[in-house]
Write a structure and sequence with these properties.
- It is a single chain.
- The longest helix has about 30 residues.
- By secondary structure, this protein is mostly helical.
- It has 15 helices and no strands.
- The two termini are about 25 Å apart.
Amino acid sequence: MKARTLLVLALVAAVAGWRLDPRALLASYLAAWWFITGALLGGLANVWLHQLTGGAWGETIRGPLLRAARWLPLACILFLPVLLGAPLLYPWQHAVQEGAFRQMWLSPVFFTIRSVGYLLLWTLLAIVETRARTRSPLRAALCLVAYGFSVSLAAVDWIMSLQPEWYSSVFGWLAGTGQMLTGLALAVLLIDRGAARKRLPDLGNLLMMYVLTWAYLAYVQFLIIWAADLPHEIAWYLRRGAPGWQAVAWVLVVGHFAVPLCILLSRHAKTAPALMGVLAGALLAAHLLDCWWLVLPSVEHLTRHWLWLAPLVAAGFGLAAWVALERTGKEGAHA
């Protein structure tokens, strides 16, 4: 009951934020939505990965992740405010792009069609997997391929095109890896870690793989752009060169890579249920910060109202997700 009361208060505050600065509110909404939806999608991707590889580790997380994925269709519907407010966020909606392909791709109508396509695809994948009575490696492989392509394109459309002059061939892979990391961290939080203590080292090793892959892709993207030093490529990093955003970048280096890696290198740490729970929660917090770092500096004419709107919107999404997962957890326990 307290969580619902807090959620209502967060909605009231969000309405006030809309009156003060709708662009800052919408940018904060996009970042929080990308984080929450990415966790649900990444959880499903880990379920599909397990169906292809096998192993006892996947049996531990399968149930909680499938119950969480039941909320993915609702999460897709919640993208509607971004579609309606797209002219506030995306500068290309008000300007003619150079080149026939860019003009065709970055057009409001085609953008909306693609967005609806991604959302319908993810909804279909969630419904198929959560209602399936049998496991199929072929279905899992097809779902993973569809997930990989759609998430990469969605990341380009919804995140990268906030700065339409910038592009990176690594960005889609980076977004997908971050989602799978977030999904597995969510699974570690949802399971009974004491009862699943024997499986924690396997989950810890998989978390370490995601942490390393995310860090590698982020570094490669930065290194290639830094070495080329082309104006249209470095524009993305120049906006993140302000002192505040530089500090966020270092926090991500430490909290999203260095500290988790040091902990996960320890076999004893990976067998400690409490420590793994804290680490999973810290990784979720670090990835939320990463979502803010990806979205907010790219939005033009963003006022400082985002400093309170971004945490507020994230808290609202978090409370809603906690209530939803608590409800599905109770349903799973009674099943």
